[in-house]
Design goal:
It is a single chain. The protein has about 475 residues and is α/β, with parallel strands linked by helices. It is built from 14 helices and 26 strands. It has 3 domains: about 140 residues, Rossmann fold, CATH 3.40.50.980; about 210 residues, 3-Layer(aba) Sandwich (Rossmann fold), CATH 3.40.50; about 90 residues, ANL, C-terminal domain (GMP Synthetase, Chain A, domain 3), CATH 3.30.300.30. Helices cover about 30% and strands about 25% of the residues. The strands form 6 sheets. The protein has a 9-stranded mixed sheet with strand order 2-1-10-9-11-12-13-14-15, with helices on both faces. Strand 20 and strand 21 form a beta hairpin. InterPro entries: AMP-bd_C, AMP-bd_C_sf, AMP-dep_synth/lig_dom, ANL_N_sf, ATP-dep_AMP-bd_enzyme. It comes from Clostridium liquoris. This is Long-chain-fatty-acid--CoA ligase. One of its GO terms (molecular function) is long-chain fatty acid-CoA ligase activity.
């Protein structure tokens, strides 16, 4: 089944609100625009051997073009609007892309020399509206629907190939454990070109719920206002999303009567912030989750009722997905032993586009090897310690940066913290902490002394540097590589 046909199977004729952005749009109108764009692509002769680039911030334009491209069987390649020209050119040449859908306000960033078919909102509005639906019966579950390009260990970006089957499988699983229904409405601050962001779009459209688009997270108070003004039942974020809301917004003095649940993924959040959220959002289900682009979006979740008992755990595999922690011999670890987290299920990617070597490194023996180092407890719940490449090796000791970060973030004066290993002539690597402060009244030596009273000596940061903000990518993840390269 084609993924777009699956998503709109029950909602395409509904007159209820689907999206609230600058204006409200119904499912019926949204789907009408989708089949109109899809008809244009079909008339141009595009099929599953073609790919189309989508460059847009979160908007109705993104949603309609995204689902239209997929419905046609063409591979959709959504990218960050702030991507470099070099990054875009690499993708265009690699996939032999001839068609770009882009918001008009972003056109000025494209080189005028590109000989490509380019479509903006104005071009879409000029199309003759189509009312007759075309069910794409040619789509195979193993056909690639989306390619998401991520930065990786190689010099070139890696294109994660996700099939129609991957998207359907992961969407069903997320709907099941979040108990989503047509009554759910989520406020979206995560970008749609990020797999976590698109998963919000997929799941809520499948059940006939609705989305509120907020592209103004730099003004956190607007996020809180929208939850109440639009009676949102859900909200999703990465660790920095919640750290900022807890530290510099008025969230602790507000009530959110409509809010049913929140979800957190995109990296491990410090226990101190999980506890703060629990105390702040009484009665709201808090889902701590784990995922990767290579797994379509989601791999695991911790049920809200276990939040306190299993603090810091990413839980177990989502419905239909199996997670294990294996040692170097490929044997499941015992409680408190350390190994690599691997996953198996219908949400695991087809592979990296045109990169068999990198694909073989992560898809082995029927499992996705995530590169995340973790352990398990007596009940089989998984805890992430670090990315293998981020483990600090100092004087023969292996140090998890997250353990040090969790201690530092217990200080009320700290808004954000990131810990990395820096080159050391004697130890190999030393621990360095980068912090963002509420104000400038805290001396860095106080942070080191605080750590000394709570950590073994070899884990105490040798250096502490204060920054106004931590460098982050467009999804809100801290860019550790940039921190390691700072002089």
């Amino acid at each position: 089944m084609n993924f777009t046909d699956y998503v709109f199977q029950f909602s395409k004729n509904l007159n209820k609100t689907a999206v609230i952005s600058k204006e409200e749009l119904s499912y019926k109108k949204t789907y009408s625009n989708i089949i109109t764009i899809e008809k244009m692509l079909r008339n141009k002769g595009l099929n599953n051997k073609d790919a189309a680039l989508l460059i847009s911030e979160n908007s109705q334009f993104f949603i309609q073009c995204y689902f239209a491209i997929i419905k046609n069987g063409t591979v959709c390649v959504p990218i960050n609007p702030n991507s470099s020209i070099e990054h875009m050119e690499y993708i265009i040449k690699s996939l032999n892309i001839k068609n770009i859908f882009i918001q008009k306000k972003l056109l000025k960033y494209l080189p005028k020399v590109w000989d490509l078919d380019i479509y903006t909102e104005e071009d879409i509005e000029k199309l003759e509206t189509i009312t007759e639906d075309h069910i794409n019966e040619k789509t195979d579950q193993q056909d690639v629907a989306v390619i998401l390009f991520t930065s990786g260990s190689t010099a070139k970006p890696k294109g994660v190939m996700l099939t129609h089957g991957n998207l359907i499988y992961n969407t069903n699983s997320i709907i099941q454990y979040l108990k989503l229904s047509e009554g759910d409405r989520i406020e979206v601050v995560l970008p749609f070109y990020y797999c976590y962001g698109t998963s919000l779009l997929h799941t809520h459209f499948r059940v006939g719920g609705s989305l509120v688009i907020n592209n103004r997270f730099m003004f956190p108070e607007t996020v809180l206002q929208h939850i109440n003004n639009y009676k949102c039942t859900g909200f999703a974020g990465v660790p920095s999303t919640f750290q900022i809301l807890l530290k510099i917004s008025d969230i602790k003095n507000r009530k959110f009567p409509s809010l049913r649940y929140i979800t957190q993924a995109g990296g491990r959040m410090a226990n101190i912030f999980i506890e703060e959220l629990f105390e702040t959002l009484k009665g709201v289900d808090i889902y701590i989750m784990y995922g990767q682009t290579e797994a379509t979006a989601r791999l695991s979740y911790l049920p809200p009722y276990l939040l306190k008992e299993k603090m810091g755990s990413i839980g177990k595999g989502i419905p239909g997905t199996q997670l294990k922690v294996l040692n170097k011999e490929g044997i499941p670890v015992k409680p408190k032993e350390v190994g690599e987290i691997v996953a198996q299920g219908g949400n695991i990617m087809k592979g990296y586009f045109n990169d068999e070597e990198e694909t073989k490194k992560v898809l082995k023996n029927g499992y996705l090897y995530t590169g995340d180092i973790g352990t398990v407890d007596e009940d089989g719940y998984i805890y992430i310690l670090s990315r293998e490449k981020n483990i600090i090796k100092s004087g023969g000791n292996r140090i998890s940066p997250k353990e040090v970060e969790d201690i530092i973030l217990q200080m009320d004066e700290i808004v954000e913290c990131a810990v990395v290993g820096v080159e050391d002539d004697i130890l190999g690597e030393s621990v360095k902490a980068f912090v963002v402060l509420k104000d400038d009244n805290l001396n860095v030596n106080s942070i080191i002394e605080y750590c000394k009273s709570r950590l073994p000596n070899y884990k105490v940061p040798k250096y502490v540097e204060v920054l106004k903000t931590l460098p982050k990518n467009s999804s809100g993840k801290v860019m550790l590589k940039e921190l390691k390269e700072m002089k």
